[in-house]
Design a protein that fits this description.
Elements lengths: L11 H15 L11 E6 L5 H13 L2 E5 L12 H11 L3 E6 L4 H7 L12 E7 L5 H15 L6 E5 L6 H12 L3 E5 L13 E3 L2 H5 L4 E4 L13 H8 L11 E3 L12 H4 L5 H21 L8
Parallel strand pairs: 1-2, 1-3, 3-4, 5-6, 5-8, 6-7, 8-9
Bound molecules: phosphoric acid mono(formamide)ester (CP).
The site of phosphoric acid mono(formamide)ester has 9 residues, from helix 2.
Length: 303
Amino acid sequence: MKHLIDIKSLSTEEINKIATRALELKNGAKPLSCKGKQVAMIFFENSTRTYFSFEMALNKLGANIYNFETSKSSITKGEGFFDTVNNLAAIGFDACIVRTTEEGLIKRTIEYENKGRKFFKPISLINAGEGTLSHPTQALLDFVTIKEHFKNLEGLNLVIIGDIRHSRVAKSNIELLSRFGINIKCVAPAYFKDETLKNIEWSDNLEKTVQNADIVMALRIQKERIQGIIEFEDYIKNYQLKEKNIPEKCILMHPGPVNRDVEASSALLDSKKGATILKQTHNGVFTRMAILETLFEEGKSND
Ligand code: CP
């Protein structure tokens, strides 16, 4: 694995390897050293969980971390992203962790290599969330959290609720979890549906659809990606999750950030059922450590 672009570009073997290693690290396995690796954090969008869990993971692996302040960089003077990354390679960086609104940016940058441009030296790009398109590290940490809870994933029923249309988390999770035999249904009002998605069933009846769920995944309304009026009152009335909606055997997931009393009631979030959400955040550190170990595999040692 040289880059982490999206879930599609990972083999099932790679996904299983990352998940197994993440749980080993969580259970106290010694991290493999990535000492001497230089990693830039390039975040064009805000983040709490992804940014700091990558930073924590890199610290635990002994790598050096640099925050690329996008507003103070020469991107503001018109420098393109390929040239930015290539100059970071020339400075000595080994990897860039990138969050962007620009869909396809990471793949395009890597593909320039096949079109005659050369990187100064090898440099890895890791997708930390790309527009509405993909968030592979979130899907991987969700996979780890589900595996930790259920062991056997085949035939589980997952219901994803909310703003599917603008959610990169939903898209990466659908891609990953359908590969492992999980049945996926999506519940959303018409204004949040994305009928182009494959391997799922749609419903607009929250109570009925959630009845047989093993996993319920709520999503935040992506205000920053929506132009026009958001139907908050309609959404809260018909799609907000409450304690009574979640079957006893079922776990509640949410990638965060949570908007309390919009996608889920505060009472539900503060109940025992809400605990899995912070477990997802916690597992994000170990999952990202496992991803970084895999990326830096060739140069790693046990020192
Ligand atoms: N889940 C997620 O990507 O959260 P952040 O935006 O806080 O990184």
